[in-house]
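Dissemination and training. As part of the outreach component of the grant, students in the summer workshop were shown how a complex can be specified as a set of sequence lines and then modelled as a single object. The example used during the hands-on session is reproduced here so that future cohorts can follow it. Participants entered these lines:
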Amino acid sequence: MQTVVIVDDSPIELTLYGHILKNIGGIQDILFDESAAALQWCARNVADLILLDYRMPAPDGLEFMERFQHFTGKNDTPIVMITAEHDRYVRHRALELGAGDFLTKPVDTVELRARVTNALRVRERSQLLSERAVSLDEEVRSATALLLDRECEAIFRLTRAAEHRDQDTGDHLVRIGLFAARIAGALGLSQDEQDLLSVAAPMHDIGKIGTPDEILQKKGPLTRREREIMKAHTIAGYDILRDSCSAVLQKAAEIALAHHENFDGTGYPYGLQGARIPISARIVALCDVFDALLSHRPYKKPWSLSRVTAYIEEQDGRQFDPSVVAAFRKVMPDLLAIRAGNNPNQTKLASEQFDANRLLEA
Amino acid sequence: MQTDFLRLDHLTEIFADDKSALRSFLTDLCAEAGRLESQIAKACREHDWARAARQSHELKGVCANSGCDEAATTAAALEVIVTNGPYDAVSLHVDRLRSVIERLRGAIGVALDARPSHSK
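and obtained this result:
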């Protein structure tokens, strides 16, 4: 059932229009002899067509249309203006305001029925097209989100495969993503950026896939040559991840390359300093060290929390960005809670926390 | 009934078989035409030309759409006069309008008498 709103200050003419439209099937008419009341109704309801008299006590037909234009989501309602005016200004202004058609008084009965029928038919088709567009849009969004979810899952599993060789760091990956998102939040980065970091950060060491086992799993200090080989995992990681159209992989490449840069410029591979190091890498640098120092490694025992925090404070402004250290202080209880609850299921948790829809919206 | 005062076939086409609605409409039209004519005459007596023009315009629209051609034409002529002048011709047009509306109301009365209210 389509709704036709008829607005005319003359009750006699309203009655006439109502009866003229009576034999058009599938419509209900709502009659208003006060344009202000009609506007109020239109603000809260949806009309499929408005038949509007021009000359009425305020608001007149043009003013009605001006106000109606501001009702969001209703601009596609066709308006047919009925007027005895031949004033060109009135017609032009009505057209500018969105009048789709004009009828001149005295109204021709056959013409009125035909124009209303046509306008309602166009309205119906337009609505069908809009609904189809919305449905297609939803399908595309849903399919894209699914693709993105799968992309993230594949990336995460690849990362785990690469880290599998280094048995102590499997859970470390999951935590890095969670830690990085928390610190990013404390730094005031957007939710999209936090989500991106939670997925991209675990890939920071993917370049270690090219590091020989004897170096990766060596118990004891590395030689100078071994250290150089180890350092090359940053560039190797960047090479693996770079040039992707995926926002996740772009962020991961940025982190992989720069997560061993130090705030004071003493890091590697390029000795970048301060804000020249991407914020994502500055965050992950601290997360990586915090978690690694608290964890067991083939070459060291876990450090106590007080020793780790003392080290981080000592490196404030040197290895680490002071703003990141400040954010770390704020969220350290959260990070410790994450560590305390860490288990293999958190691998799933990390990927579940990633909201593909947020990235799509971004 | 088919006169310049009331083209009943026009209204019959609109109301189709709903004779009760047509009767009710004719009754309302008779009252509305009389009311507007009185108000126009009053506005003219008071030299309130804007109000006279607005009400003449309204009467013109009501009559034109209802098939009351003579009344519509007379109201249109009065609307022009009260809008643009000359104002010394206004009373002539007001008298003319009163006469036309009286004849219209007469024609409506005849139509109503010829259409008993119970028929549908």
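Chain A touches chain B at residues 9-13, 15-16, 19-20, 22-23, 55, 84, 105-107, 109 (CB under 8 Å). Students were then asked to discuss how this feature might be tested experimentally.
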